[in-house]
Amino acid sequence: MRMRGAIFDVDGTLLDSMSIWDTIGTDYLRSIGYEPRENLNEVFKNMSLYQAARYYQSEYGVTLSVDEMMGGVNAMLERYYRFEASLKPGAAKLLTQLQAGGVKLCIATATDRYLVEAALERCGVLSCFGEIFTCSEVGHGKDEPYIFEAALRFLGTPKTETIVFDDALYAVRAAKEAGFPVAAVYDSHEKAQDQVRALADVYLEELTQLDRLRKSFPVS
User: Fold this and answer.
1) How far apart are CA 90 and CA 145, in angstroms?
2) Considering the entire predicted model, what is its pTM?
3) Are 37 and 44 in contact (CB under 8 A)?
4) pLDDT tens-digit map of 73-132
5) Distance CA 167, CA 187 (A)
6) Most exposed of 100, 152, 172, 209 (fewest Cβ within 10 Å)?
């Protein structure tokens, strides 16, 4: 199975950035003078930013408006992506080698476009990608195939030769069920590693494992 196209996730796959999402809820609350109760980050795990802001109001008595709180959280995220988020080891070399081999590359991410662009530009790899697809713009999460299908249409490569790179079980499952080959990338924030490994066509503990990747997906 050759590789002619590649669709990359960002957080946990290209960027070592999942930690910001683990603590952003408590970090923001402390920044406005409130002490979070135990397990707040777990409570926020499945909430949207709007829902989290309403939770601040109802459970902590925060008097700021929802828009003010959402703006404050987004400002913290923007500072992180613009100045701190770093590539995982081997990511830059992998991208440049794929690009040099004629593989068409694009992004499929749940993170907002401006944050992704800021981080990848600073890290020197934004120009490797022909397009960025985000869940908010596509209108579906990565537990569904729509974002991968949109990326495939842009790339114009055969589905069986278009590899999805992702670290999250739900995204790996959705891509596989839609017929995409998958290169799963280890990230410590995904706890279901056995399931990820079982579903993936190739499993990478590190992006430096180019020989393992080439063995499964030779570059055309």
Assistant:
1) 27
2) 0.91
3) no
4) 999 999 999 999 999 999 999 999 999 999 999 999 988 899 999 999 999 999 999 999
5) 6
6) 100
Side-chain half-sphere CA neighbours of 66 within 13 A: 9
Burial 95-126 (b: 16+ CB within 10 A, else e): beebbeeebbbbbbbbbbeebbbbbbebbebe
The answer to whether the beta carbons of residues 28 and 120 sit under 8 Å apart is no
Residues near 6 by beta carbon (within 8 Å), at least 6 away in sequence:
98, 103, 104, 105, 106, 162, 163, 164, 165
Cα dist from 218 to 53, 177, 178, 203, whole Å: 47, 22, 22, 15
pLDDT digits (tens, 9 = 90+) for 10-41: 999 999 999 898 889 999 999 999 999 878 88
Least confident of 35-39, 52-56, 116-120, 193-197: 35-39
Q: How far apart are CA 109 and CA 132, in angstroms?
A: 8
DSSP letter at 98?
H
Q: Which two tokens stand for residue 85?
A: 């988020």
DSSP conformation letters of 39-79:
THHHHHTT--HHHHHHHHHHHH---S-HHHHHHHHHHHHHH
In the chain, count of helices (H) and strands (E)?
11, 6
